[in-house]
Design goal:
- Helix content is about 50%, strand content about 15%.
- By secondary structure, the chain is of the alpha/beta class.
- The chain has two domains: about 150 residues, Rossmann fold (3-Layer(aba) Sandwich), CATH 3.40.50; about 140 residues, Response regulator (Rossmann fold), CATH 3.40.50.
- It has a four-stranded parallel beta sheet, covered by helices on one side. Strands 8-7-9-10 form a four-stranded parallel beta sheet, sandwiched between helices. Strands 4-6 form a two-stranded parallel sheet.
């Protein structure tokens, strides 16, 4: 490994893929003695910058990503922007993940981007992507391979802990809400935080849709639909079916205008019979959302009182 790597800084936008693979990136680069710099948490300025950069048809989540990229400029040596097409056989991810690198490169032509591809249709698998990433940085195959295995195990242990925490939450006597959506929306500082804070203030137990073990996804999703092509949407649908009998209500969170979510959310609303509140965020504004949450929770509390 080249000594210069010790002083390299990799910038990571706190958006989109970060909420799936951020743990792996953290430990992969840590193992290689490379520092990572996270962009700041999403704020109004992030969204304003992203809105000015993005195409008018881009979803709010994509606008946040572009704002986060801008936040990293002049703070690091490279900015990590992977490209994903297919991460599960016979399925595809949202086209934003496939075009992410090209969009970023076109909008920011003067910054250095670090990239890897995962596309099972072209046999570009995850481990190959990470070892190629290491090669681009001048790191040997064996060092990159060991760093990949280390980060993969760290992610497995992290998720295992999260799964166990969620199982304990399901045993709580509190009213439970399934907070369903993509993790880059659920955990974002603007998109999901106010809803999470509201749930905690009202003493609801929050169950997260992304915390469903991968081995359950195909089985649970097939009970509602066998036609969902989008990998991440499939997990949301699967989690709704799995948790529907374990929670008192569901909040579906999306950002406008997400095409895959508009289809999967409609499927969920038609087939799931417990109370559902569908929230679509278009900007940093929360106008009307708190009022809708108040009304939804009143319904849940009345229903619970009647059942008891």
């Amino acid at each position: 490994m080249k000594g210069m790597m010790l002083f390299m800084k990799i910038g990571v936008p706190r958006a989109l893929l970060y909420y799936y693979d951020g743990i792996m990136w953290k430990y992969f680069f840590e193992k290689l003695n490379i520092d990572i710099i996270l962009s700041d948490k999403t704020n109004k300025e992030t969204i304003t910058i992203g809105e000015n950069l993005a195409d008018s048809e881009a979803c709010l989540s994509m606008k946040i990503f572009l704002g986060q990229v801008k936040n990293l400029i002049n703070r690091c040596d490279y900015i990590l922007v992977p490209r994903l097409y297919s991460i599960k056989k016979g399925e595809q991810v949202c086209t934003n993940f496939n075009s992410l690198y090209d969009v970023t490169k076109n909008l920011f032509p003067n910054i250095k981007l670090l990239n890897y591809n995962i596309d099972l249709t072209e046999k570009e698998i995850e481990i190959l992507a990470y070892t190629k990433l290491g090669k681009e940085l001048g790191i040997s195959y064996i060092d990159s391979y060991n760093a990949y295995c280390y980060s993969k195990n760290k992610k497995r242990l992290f998720l295992q802990k999260k799964y166990e925490e969620q199982k304990r939450k399901l045993k709580s006597n509190k009213l439970k809400i399934l907070f369903a959506g993509h993790p880059y929306n659920l955990y974002d500082e603007i998109v999901g935080k106010d809803i999470r804070n509201y749930l905690e203030k009202e003493n609801f137990e929050i169950i997260y849709s992304d915390l469903l073990e991968d081995g359950l996804v195909d089985r649970e999703c097939s009970k509602l639909s066998t036609d969902i092509h989008w990998t991440h949407s499939k997990k949301v649908v699967a989690s709704v079916n799995y948790y529907k009998d374990k929670v008192d209500g569901i909040i579906l969170l999306s950002t406008f205008p997400c095409g895959p979510d508009s289809l999967s959310n409609e499927l969920i609303k038609r087939k799931i019979k417990i109370p559902i509140l569908n929230i679509t965020k278009e900007s940093f504004s929360n106008t009307g959302i708190i009022t809708r949450l108040d009304a939804f929770f009143d319904i849940l509390k009345v229903k619970n009182e009647k059942c008891n």
